[in-house]
Amino acid sequence: MRNMAGEGYEVYSAGSAPTVVNPAAVKVMKELGIDISRQRSKSVEEFSDQYFDYIVTVCDNMERICPVFPGDYKKIHWNLEDPAAAEGTEEERLGAFRKTRDRIRERIKETFLPDLKK
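^ that's the sequence the OP posted. Answer follows.
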């Protein structure tokens, strides 16, 4: 989103059980010229007192446990497969990350990018 929308949106990312940024995610994003190697995995709790216009959840578990944030925001849910759960060869696992990456890019285009043209 940060790469696609430029300064049109301020973007944050967090999860319910932060660990490390998956090396496969770093690799497939680099294929698009996006370097996430210096990103860190963050807990959604870090943002609990922040105001947002949109909250986007990308898995059913996060939709269920997502805390309530202050303010009036629009909640959007995209149930995507967790590529970290993919099994198989390295290329098959990378394929799962590419599929999820591409689905997220399409959802961003459909949901947010039309707003940037206003």
